[in-house]
Structure to design on (103 residues):
């Protein structure tokens, strides 16, 4: 868990230090800041979804291993939660694509 926190802190420092480079004036040429931000946002949405799916699966399997008689209900709940997570991920990706197109 400490490694994930360290990686997120390094990512935050890199993004904050790179923000002046992305703040180019629109009149001077093409503005790439929104496209880069949309790409980073899409990447973070996919990473978050992957972590969420992993946690859903591991918790469901652990629950089924502890109480095999509830496997059907746990599997149904797992699929519903996974579908909701997938919908939220697609929404985040669509927002990122729209923002990239407006750049």
């Amino acid at each position: 868990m400490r490694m994930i926190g360290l990686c997120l802190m390094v990512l935050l420092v890199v993004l904050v230090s790179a923000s002046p480079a992305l703040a180019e004036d629109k009149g001077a040429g093409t503005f790439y800041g929104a496209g880069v931000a949309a790409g980073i946002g899409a990447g973070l949405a996919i990473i978050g979804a992957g972590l969420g799916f992993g946690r859903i699966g591991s918790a469901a399997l652990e629950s089924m291993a502890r109480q095999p008689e509830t496997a059907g209900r746990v599997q149904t709940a797992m699929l519903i939660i996974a579908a909701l997570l997938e919908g939220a991920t697609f929404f985040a990706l669509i927002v990122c694509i729209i923002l990239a197109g407006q750049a």
User: Anything to note?
Assistant: Residues 56-103 form one domain.
